[in-house]
Sequence to fold (500 residues):
Amino acid sequence: MTAQVQSLPTNINFSDRVSAALYGGRPQSVATHARVVNVSSSPVDIITPNTKVFGMGLPSPPPERDEEGCLPTIHTEPVDSLLRSGIASAALAAAAHQPDAEAAFFVADLGHVYRQHLRWTRCLPNVTPFYAVKANPDPVVLRLLSALGSGFDCASMNEINMVSEIGVDPSRVIFANPCKPTSFVKHAARMGVDMTTFDNVDELVKIARVHPGAKLVLRILTDDSKSLCRLGLKFGASLIAVPTLLVKAKELGLNVVGISFHVGSGCYDTGAFADAVARAKKAFEMGREAGYTFTLLDVGGGFEGERFEEAAAVLDQALQTHFGDCPEVKIIAEPGRFYVSEAFTLAANIIARRGPERALLEAETDDGNPRVMYYLNDGVYGSFNCIMFDHQTVHPIWLTVGKVLTDTSSWGSTSNQERTCAMASSSLWGPTCDSIDCVLANVSLPIGLEVGDWLGFRNMGAYTICAASSFNGFDRTKVVYTIGDEFVVENLLLQPTTTM
Ligand SMILES: Cc1ncc(COP(=O)(O)O)c(C=O)c1O
Fold:
């Protein structure tokens, strides 16, 4: 098939094109931090499902980093358009013999992060989110959440520094790691980060020595048996241990201000929140007996996009039951996955293939055992570390087959796509030389997939980029951002950080 190349205007100024639409007549110089562009005249538009996307000789889309500002380029196109333009850009880069031309990339939908925040405030208006930076420390996401009024749950010195650098006031940070290096506690003290969790006597002794003015939050153990990641295996004091810990804190002259818990990350039993709040109430009573008046309840993370409304309703009911008559108690949470999981889509390139030729695959019966091995340029040592560390299973969609874009309308569901392709049992591997680097051991994929084709993976925003390594010299996957049609996000990102 020959490429259907259409002529493009040669003098597109992306920033100018959006100034009318987005800046509403404001001078262009207002946009000092982010360059928001609409790429609708980039290669995106001229790729149709039947267009061969390789070697089209098209002009390059705008660079992903704005040299003048501190934030990268922010697009306004829908995620799928950016997937298409990313694929087209890679084809151009390959034609120009650029190194790493076919690099995998994420598309981050900041509009989705914004909508998740609206969902949060609608369902839990009295619970202030302190976003768990560990889930995805993307600087643009942090900046957006800061502008939306979120606090931050930091687990380390570097995470404290990240939020401090974007102007977050230390009162909006909780150092929510119950077992911290002494030097990190000293650093928190220097930075004015006072709120921190503990669950053992040694931590109390450490904090008394290096951060005596800390506002301590006792993390209690709750039932996390219905969660993907059982954090209680490592952290949380049982209710039996609480009185002793509080007596010790009093002895050391420490200020314990409240209780925290975490029902486990990826919690699929909404009832866990009700049980945990009831336990927290008991811990509050123990606090009173030890001479403390607690004013903070931290209900942790564990919220998921899918069952959020249900979990929020259970939590809200439990809060009313146990803390409804305690207006002095401020309630915070540490959601991570909830905000970012569905906001990031990964596009990865098939860099190698081992298996019979297509004609043979078509002729042979598929007995369900993998017949083709595909190698992607992102793997378990990279963004797919979520398979190991976060117990995830990932689901590919095929963005191109035989180097031709598939119908974008089928990108929503794998089953739709399967109906239109001849399939073969296959396996998917990462790019490193380690055989543990297996993304999917047995997955049905189109027979027509070739080296150079692209696969997409939705819901890749949580616990992916943050734990990716550069093992074997493979770069971590870069991110392209869009606000979609949530233009309010642009204003939020452009807010001066000092006023946040
Ligand atoms: C202390 C703490 N808070 C919050 C979170 C975020 O949890 P989630 O992403 O499930 O909301 C975690 C996750 O490990 C955590 O350890």
About this structure: The longest strand covers residues 344-354. DSSP finds 15 helices and 22 strands in the chain.
